[in-house]
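Subgroup meeting minutes
Present: P.N., E.W., G.H.
Scribe: E.W.

1. P.N. recapped why we're keeping a running log of single-chain structure predictions: easier to compare across weeks, and new members can see raw inputs and outputs side by side.
2. G.H. added today's entry (166 aa).
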Amino acid sequence: MSKETFPDLARRRLLSFAGASLVLAVTPLGQATTRLPSILAVRIWPAADYTRVTLEHEVPLKFTQFTIENPDRLVVDIEGIEFNAVLEGLAGKVVGDDPYIKLLRAGRYKPGVVRLVMELKTKVKPQVFVLNPVGNYGYRLVLDVYPQEPPDPLLALLQGKKEDFE
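Output recorded in log:
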């Protein structure tokens, strides 16, 4: 092997390695190694007036929402997060006596987008918004589910009194 052949072989290997690294960096396989932000916790507070679902996450997220009828559902698409065990366990967080939510589930909608689907017991007026970090809490995506027809407080009081006498 001549002295000129060895540098050519080393240069060829270096270029081959650099080319392979570049290809890997721009392909989906290579990009899969970069971790997307994830949902850290989910909390649900059902009440007579409304139900609040809060998803705590690491960074600000982009989301879109819409409702569907027959059956009534609220759909929220969240971009740029990883589907994880917290989202997988959503269905177990909804209690049976929640006045507005029948079921809450999540899944991968398309690459980089997680879709939350909230099956509803009645028609609702949802409010979806983001809260910035405060105290021990990170960013929070809040889904407030209000009934389309708010309960009449006087009627609820009278019904409560009626039950006291029965």
